[in-house]
């Protein structure tokens, strides 16, 4: 018919003469380039001239030459009827199209908006359809799973320093990606805690959808910057710590993605918004631990990031409107002002470890280490050790930390007659991390001793290692226990005798039943104390290639 455009793509794709995927309410090209999709309504275009009728013989000749499709195989150009019904499971996922509201915050298009223009999307889009459990309001589902979790686990140890159990909850129901990530994590935790294999299976199934949706969000020119995308990325890393879908090192691949995403967003994005601040504060220990185990410097030690890290807890704790206000959720209020100074010092550890590992590797190979490198190691280790000792002294004077209490051990297989109990498990986790830092720094100073001279901290290191393992029983209890003791435990195990190492690995295997990152089989070697197995390096590379989607930030 004269005046009816033949192209079925959106007006912008037709104007630009590019192929349109015809996804509604906005096509993929418009989403990709951040343009407002004009839609698929075609205005009639009237042209002057007479309609030419082709002869029947001419059409039959074209059909013989393959220029005209048979009638039964031609594509219908009739529009979709508003009254037609479409299976909602095949509708486009609500996070496939994104928009910005008036305030500039990231929101996903509401599900009911897509029902106004039902159309079956392409196969690659249908694979990312929102799971049934998340199509309606996901808030009751998430809160119901949390209620189940807190019936078998203590709530106090979960909410401390963990925005995925506190401030993230106020963002549930806004973005399907974050809803799915939080639901998959809670299903994993509840399933493991209750021995419910069906919940664990459902968590893995939902997690695969989350990874695919996360890749789409990271490739979006606007959505990758949103706090919800960062929160989902962090939750995926936490999920891998507990689940280890590929192996126990997969969390390091996700931590690499978090590093890139945080740095791409820049320090300014974590200086004002309380939700962004709580996210960086919660993931800060993971960022530093990943840098330590991977053997590279931590970006949080750079000046512009150090200024942000120095006041994360201050900005977060002074917000009375925040759902994560410490007076509501944290037992030891006095400890808060001393957390930022500790993590500022803790972020310097990866650089010292990297230098110390280089010196140790040359010494083990019988090579004379570079004198300038040894001097640098001695200077940095001594300076950082002095700063840590001063920090701990100030904190104890203000009652931020109390001396642990000795009590008889209830484990007949333990090599220790007594264990150390802190007044709070999270308080104990910071003290254990502080002891682990001292262990490494003092070992660096031992390595810098002159040949033939006695090592000044050899006895002190053995005592620190034993104290870490004695405190592991209490601090490592609960479902977040392995998260608290993972780093100090890996450091301490290299300073004890063989019998104690065997007992420690037995404890590690018990932790790995619900916390995969603690597996003794693929647990990464400490960059300073021991050589990393080549198989461990290969497994990290395999995990990077197979498990985590590429984090290309366009």
From TrEMBL:
Disordered: region residues: 54-91
InterPro entries for the chain: Fun_TF, Osmoadaptation_assoc, Zn2-C6_fun-type_DNA-bd_sf, Zn2Cys6_DnaBD
Compositionally biased residues, Low complexity: 70-89
Gene3D superfamilies: Zn(2)-C6 fungal-type DNA-binding domain (4.10.240.10)
GO molecular function terms listed in the Swiss-Prot or TrEMBL record: DNA-binding transcription factor activity, RNA polymerase II-specific; zinc ion binding
Keyword hit for Nucleus: yes
Location of the Zn(2)-C6 fungal-type domain: 9-37
Keywords: Nucleus
Origin: domain of life: Eukaryota
Record protein name field: Zn(2)-C6 fungal-type domain-containing protein
């Amino acid at each position: 018919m004269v005046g009816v455009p033949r192209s079925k793509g959106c007006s912008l794709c037709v104007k630009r003469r590019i192929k349109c995927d015809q996804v509604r309410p906005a096509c993929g090209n418009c989403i990709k380039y951040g343009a407002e999709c004009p839609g698929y309504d075609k205005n009639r275009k009237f042209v002057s001239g007479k309609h030419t009728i082709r002869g029947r013989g001419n059409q039959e000749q074209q059909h013989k030459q393959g220029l005209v499709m048979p009638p039964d195989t031609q594509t219908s150009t009739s529009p979709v009827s508003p009254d037609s019904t479409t299976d909602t499971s095949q509708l486009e996922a609500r996070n496939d199209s994104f928009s910005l509201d008036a305030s500039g915050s990231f929101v996903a298009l509401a599900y009911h908006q897509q029902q106004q223009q039902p159309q079956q999307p392409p196969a690659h889009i249908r694979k990312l359809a929102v799971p049934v459990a998340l199509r309606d309001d996901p808030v009751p589902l998430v809160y119901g799973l949390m209620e189940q979790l807190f019936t078998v686990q203590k709530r106090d140890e979960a909410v401390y320093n963990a925005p995925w159990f506190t401030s993230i909850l106020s963002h549930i129901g806004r973005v399907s990606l974050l809803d799915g990530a939080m639901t998959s994590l809670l299903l994993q935790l509840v399933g493991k805690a209750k021995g419910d294999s069906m919940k664990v299976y459902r968590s893995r199934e939902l997690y695969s959808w989350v990874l695919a949706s996360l890749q789409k969000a990271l490739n979006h020119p606007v959505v990758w910057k949103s706090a919800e995308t960062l929160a989902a990325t962090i939750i995926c890393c936490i999920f891998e710590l507990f689940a280890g879908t590929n192996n126990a090192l997969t969390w390091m691949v996700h931590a690499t993605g978090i590093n890139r995403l945080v740095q791409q967003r820049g320090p300014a994005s974590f200086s004002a918004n309380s939700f962004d601040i709580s996210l960086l504060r919660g993931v800060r220990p993971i960022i530093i631990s990943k840098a330590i185990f991977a053997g590279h410097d931590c970006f949080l030690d750079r000046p512009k990031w150090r200024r942000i890290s120095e006041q994360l807890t201050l900005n977060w704790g002074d917000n009375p409107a925040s759902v994560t206000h410490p007076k509501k959720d944290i037992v030891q209020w006095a400890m808060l002002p001393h957390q930022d100074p500790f993590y500022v010092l803790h972020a310097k550890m990866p650089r010292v470890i990297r230098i110390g590992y280089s010196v140790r590797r040359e010494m083990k190979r019988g090579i004379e280490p570079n004198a300038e490198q040894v001097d640098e190691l001695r200077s940095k280790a001594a300076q950082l050790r002095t700063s840590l000792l001063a920090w701990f002294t100030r904190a104890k004077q203000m009652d931020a930390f109390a001396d642990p209490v000795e009590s008889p051990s209830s484990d007949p297989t333990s090599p220790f007659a007594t264990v150390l109990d802190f007044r709070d498990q999270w308080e104990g986790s910071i003290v254990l991390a502080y002891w682990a830092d001292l262990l490494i720094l003092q070992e660096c100073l031992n390595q810098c001793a002159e040949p033939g001279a006695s090592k000044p901290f050899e006895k002190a290191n053995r005592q620190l290692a034993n104290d870490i393992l004695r405190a592991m029983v209490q601090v490592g209890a609960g479902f977040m226990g392995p998260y608290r003791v993972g780093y100090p435990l890996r450091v301490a195990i290299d300073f004890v005798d063989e019998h104690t190492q065997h007992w420690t690995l037995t404890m590690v295997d018990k932790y790995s039943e619900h916390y995969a990152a603690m597996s003794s089989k693929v647990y990464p070697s400490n960059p300073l104390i021991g050589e990393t197995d080549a198989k461990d390096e290969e497994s990290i590379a395999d995990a990077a290639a197979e498990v985590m989607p590429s984090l290309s930030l366009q």
